[in-house]
Sequence to fold (111 residues):
Amino acid sequence: MTAAPALAGPACCPSGLRRPLDSGSAVELARLLKAVADPTRLRILAFLRSQPECSACVCDLTAAVGLSQPTVSHHLRILTDAELLDHEKRGYWTWYSLRVARLNELSAVLA
Fold:
C-alpha cells in the first residue's frame, strides 16, 4: 500500500509550517487564516461543503447562518477575497461555490 501524496500548502507557503516563513509569506498566510478565523465564516464553509457540488445560493446561506443578507455578503466577500469561494450570478441570485482545492491547501499548512 502506498502513502497518499502530501498536500501542498498555498503558494505563499507550499511546505506549510515545516520551514521558516519570510515576512511576505507570513502576511499572506495570516490573511488566509484570518478569513477562516470567524465562526460565521466557518459555518458558511461547512454549509457549502455539505451541499451537492459544494455550492449554494446566497439566499440559502442567509437562512443557514441566520443572519441578514448584508452581513452574510460581507462574510462571503472576505472568503471570496481569500480565494476560498467562487461566485456566479444566476438570474437574480448569486451562487457561491467552495474551492475545495484551496481548502485542501489551507489544511495542508497545519498538517
In short: The longest strand covers residues 85-90.
